[in-house]
Structure prediction request, 611 residues.
Amino acid sequence: MARFHPLRVTDIRRDTRDSVVLTLEPPADGREDFKFIQGQYLTFRRVFDGEELRRSYSICAGRNEGILRVAVKKVDGGWFSAFANDDLKVGDTLDAMKPMGNFHAPLNPEQARRYLGFAGGSGITPLISIIRTVLAEEPKSSVTLVYGNRGAATIMFREELEDLKNLYLGRLNVVHILESEGEIDLFSGRLDREKCDALFERWVDVRGADYAFICGPEPMMLAVAGALRAKGVAEDRIKFELFATAQRGKAKAPAPAGQTASSARCAATVVMDGVARSFEMSKAGQSVLEAAIAAKIDAPFACKAGVCSTCRAKLVEGEVEMEANYALEDYEVRRGYILTCQSRPLTDRVVVDYDQ
Amino acid sequence: MSEDEIDILDYLARGGKLSAPDNAPPRYRAELLRIMASFVDSEFAGAAGFADRINDGPGVKERIDGARIVFEKLEHGERVLRIMGEFGADVERYQSVHPWAARIGRDDDIGTTRRSGDMRLNVFHYPFAGWTDSVVMNVLMGHATVIQLSDLANGSYQPLAQAFGEILRGERRHAELGVEGLRKLAMQGETARGDISKSVDYWWPRVTATFGGKASMRQELLRRFGLRKRSNEELLDQWRGRVGPIIGDILKSLA
Prediction:
């Protein structure tokens, strides 16, 4: 089960008009837990209006700098990002899980590697961590960063990147691509396929690169990856980290059943792959999963013991009782998620959705 | 951000990759967990079955190889189980939730169906009939695992794809050790080769069944999710083409 630790905010630095960089300090007994690998992220939780929200932000510090930093860019309607930008104060605490994520390649200080980084907007944050770590710990390696933004004013970590270039002379090369500004055609516009092809033709030599790290919005990531592949960069050398804009909407609590249970049978509806199918089941015998499978629905499952969470679905109507639950966390249960292999209906009607 | 946002399924269908559980859409998450559970269960069940045969190895070299295979299969399973843990699976409990060493009767026929209980591939439900039999199974299934994993190692969930890529090296070695062991057995004479041949007849259809049926809805879904690239039939053909000649050579060249 996920464990949260309180991190104290020791510094808040405004980076651009709509982003802040937070420096955080783990509790004395949690220092080991917060050692991280470059490119990992922290997941924070906070209760807004009685509902728990979780948000993940990439760590933007080098592995051995001894500090924990994240950058939070304000997004429209984003509760957490607005809170971090407007209300958070030095001395406050934030609950966070220990670092997670796999957006990295193992370091080798002996090797002289060539890294490519591609960032779109706030997709820069994990790359800052990777760049700082690689430059410090692989003294013979170099990094070329292609960094796309709307305009100069929205470039996060702009100064920091300049400082790094000066600190590690000749080992960090930054190419800024700006959508709305820029005098040279090659460096203005969006980071799309055409732009990448042009850059790789005339400015950035991608052949022989050891690793390419891409973080940004989906279309940009696809465009960059496509252009890299076309230049012969091997698939396993291209690392993706999806941009963190996918801020999910607030989940509705399951609708109350309306009436108390009366019969021994339940009318069940299962939604999967966009199709709703209904069948009748006993409240006493099979689990929702077993009944769905008996009704020839190819519902997902694995362990059938409430452990693996493969059979997770959302209960959108009715009530069920879960016999065992070792895989869902309280906040997921509050949002209506159930393990269908462990659930038996309590109401005369249940609707379960595997697509949510 | 509207022009930046495309459907995540579209992103996957166009070759995009994911690297964190939070980005996985629900159905994708379910299929990914199924793939992982099937692998973990197969490795744990495979290791449990083979562990019992180590003492049957004719010499210390064979027992060392057998022990190494068992050790590494457990390690491979554990590695993927840790990724399941990042999706919420209870890793500690999972390890003891199924009786990994349990087997059905030698002559029961379960085809491609899953048994209730764990998600191990059908082939790992059958018991061995001695050392030679276990080596034959290891050769046939070892090559099948390598081919099946090679496809999964291109999957769209990068942490798993990477783990499979690394696991693949170990599994490849297991299959090679099997071939080496089988060659040695075949050199013992006609009786030994007869036993090998009988075991091949037993395991061949059972390993064939691990490749699954012809085109199914699920296969199509997995392909759209970028979790699978090649069809069951393509993989099966590749296996036949690879393992057929190996067995043929071992039995023929020495006969």
The domain at 114-242 of chain A is CATH 3.40.50.80 (Rossmann fold).
